[in-house]
Amino acid sequence: MTVFRIIVLFVLAAVAEIGGAWLIWQAIKEERGWILAVLGVMALGAYGFIAALQPDANFGRVLAAYGGVFIAGSLAWGIIVDGFKPTVWDWVGSSIALVGAAIIILAPVVTQTATEPGA
């Protein structure tokens, strides 16, 4: 259940942060109205709360791992929302970032599970 919770929280955090940044981008770069900027700021605030719900108490570890999720999520957002066409280098870089994120955030979970009595 812990790994599932970690993944769900990372996905929710990615949607909140990337969506919030995108809304602000739309307000400023695309001149689509300041209400989008306000909604973006609210989404970015929600991201902070969602990230704080991660079971790992180490801020640096959670945010470092989230960096990989942010990279992949940003490319996915671009593909889905903006019609972005990633290059092979985008795919390779995103994959490397996700592997790094998985190593950072899941290694402590796997290590703790393996060392618990009865494991």
Tell me what the structure shows.
The chain has one domain. Helices cover 82% and strands 0% of the residues. The chain has 4 helices and no strands. The chain has helices at residues 2-28, 34-52, 59-82, 88-115. The chain is flat and about 60 Å long. 18% of the residues are buried.
Summary?
With 119 residues, the protein is mainly α. The protein is built from 4 helices and no strands.
Helix and strand arrangement:
Elements: H1 2-28, H2 34-52, H3 59-82, H4 88-115
Pfam families: UPF0060
Membrane topology: Multi-pass membrane protein
Keywords: Cell membrane, Membrane, Transmembrane, Transmembrane helix
Features:
UPF0060, mainly alpha, flat, 119 residues, 4 helices, 82% helix, 0% strand
Task: Give unreliable regions as ranges.
Answer: none
- What is the CA-based Rg, rounded? 16 Å
- H/E element order: HHHH
Largest sheet: none
The helix fraction, in percent, is over 70%
Number of strands: 0
Oligomeric grouping of the chains: single chain
